[in-house]
Amino acid sequence: MEKKVRVRFAPSPTGGLHLGGVRTVLYNYLFAKQHGGDFVLRIEDTDQNRYVPGAEEYIFECLKWVGLEPDESPLHGGPYAPYRQSERKEMYRQYAEQLVKQGNAYYAFDTPAELEAMREKFRTEENPSPQYNHSLRGRMRNSLTMSEDEVSRLLKEGTPHVIRIKMPENETLTFTDIIRGEVHFNSSLVDDKVLLKADGMPTYHLAVVIDDYSMKITHAFRGEEWLPSAPVHLLLWKYLGWEQEMPQWAHFPLILKPDGHGKLSKRDGDRLGFPVFAMNWKDPRNEELTHGFRELGFLPEAFINMLAVLGWNDGTEQELFSLEELVNKFSLENVHKGGAKFNYEKAKWFNHEWIKKLPVDRWQSTVRKEFEKNGIIIKDEEKFIRVLELVKDRCTLLTDFFTQASFFFKAPEALDVASVKPKWNEDKSMFFDILSEKLTTLEEWNATAIEALFKETATEKGIKMGELQLPFRIMLVGGKFGPTVFDIAALIGKEETIARIRKGLSDIGL
RNA sequence: GGAGCGUUGGUCAAGGGGUUAAGACACCUCCCUUUCACGGAGGAAUCACGGGUUCGAUUCCCGUACGCUCUACCA
């Protein structure tokens, strides 16, 4: 019988959720749902120094926003609770002790200062970062070099210590990565990683193995930066006797900076002017605000879509995918091996496509809030929808709607008179005078009728339509943008149109 | 320094022993529109390098270069 697929995303609550993290969530989610499996969210909060209040709640809100909610988590509960590593603290030591008893790990009493001294002492140009490994552990203060009596005395006295894995010498460690195929390591080149810290908390290495085992995780996906520590995890699965239960691994390619090389960081976003976090993140320690995709006007559908194809594609020309389609079409085999540079322009293109693709009611309320924030209260919902339909082609971000459509609800404050003034004359002035008169008596108020009247009047005055449309636009809109002028006039209504012509006339002067 | 991983246009990328090496974003030209966009047509631009294997390599093999990641009592 096939085991039920179970995957997990295991963030540490240290700050905003990076777009790469969201992609990892996405790929996990897609894989799980495709196989009818479970998606587990586990909080890796074993580093008490890095704990940031609010970060966990923030992660949940992000997942909710993008629609990738876990089946099990500290918030959603589940049969393998607790899902917060700090709450599972007790079990880790027990396993670490077991490893010591088996001879696969050992106590180490070296203080941070001693470790630093060791690194200092052995650092050379050839070896800039000396490791605590098979060749050095014999010279350090640990249960391998000290007598049993001394070790138990130190332990009894409560001397701070860690537990380190004892990496074997010269073993070839191999595993098959779903994306990369067979990967090999020589165990001699891996250091004796700390498993249990002096404060009793496990390190990632120990915790990830124990939790993946006890939560029955079948497939473990993470970023490529974890590849070098895979041999440690491999050995842990083996030493703990769980080799048969080890999940299948896949290491995802990294998302890189748009310029130069290297992992994309929050700093790059600040520097280059685009978001890196899913949502706004305010660091409680310094009140610093980092902008997120959500607040900048991205649709979750677009955000997900853009992330999905950053490192994966289905082999066809299709670029626009809904979450449902992704669940059906995603495959780890088609995930790229190489990292991809993030391209903000393309990200915006996806958003624009989704604005056009989705029915207005999917984002209408978000835009309404944006309007309200800027002092425009929408009273006529029907008109609002017509306006949104009319301008959506020219909005890339949800936040663009305000500049593209606020004039439908509020007369422009300043008119770009400079662009009409040079060609302005008395004839034109008279034209608008007459036009506003005639509009008063226009019975049917729609774009076609307004345009017909406009044309008729222009012909009477012997002025070309084109000469008059721009001034008309400036009067109604304030600037050189927006949809067809007659559509605008139709939507803002007779009174308002006439009022704006009058105001425009006086602003332009003669 | 070491180890691991990677390398198709500026970017995302399809493809894979014989192809005119798709497509998208960006860029350029033109059309549409007497606003700004959308849209449409076209253009420029790519298989890191060197050796093999082969009748034939972008594709397979081996090197080299370059890049990235890791090298913490962080994840």
Report on this structure.
42% of the residues lie in helices and 10% in strands. Helix 16 packs across helix 18 (485-492) and helix 17 crosses helix 19 (494-508). The protein has 4 domains: 6-83 and 254-341, Rossmann fold (3-Layer(aba) Sandwich), CATH 3.40.50; 86-252, Alpha-Beta Complex (Glutamyl-tRNA Synthetase, domain 3); 359-405; 417-508, Arc Repressor Mutant, subunit A, CATH 1.10.10.350. The model has no long low-confidence stretch (mean pLDDT 95). By secondary structure, the protein is mainly alpha-helical. The strands form 6 sheets. The chain has a 3-stranded antiparallel sheet with strand order 3-4-7. It binds one RNA strand of 75 nucleotides through strand 6, strand 13, helix 11 and helix 17.
- CATH-level-4 superfamily name of the largest domain: Glutamyl-tRNA Synthetase, Domain 3
Q: Level of helix content?
A: 40-55%
Could you name the CATH class of the largest domain?
Answer: Alpha Beta
Largest sheet report: 3 strands, antiparallel
The total beta strand count reads: 13
Tertiary shape: elongated
For the largest beta sheet, what order do the strands appear in spatially? Answer: 3-4-7
Strand pairing plus helix content: what structural class?
mainly alpha
Number of helices: 19
Instruction: Please state roughly what percent of the residues sit in beta strands, choosing from under 5%, 5-15%, 15-25%, 25-35%, 35-45% or over 45%.
Output: 5-15%
- Whole-number tally of structural domains: 4
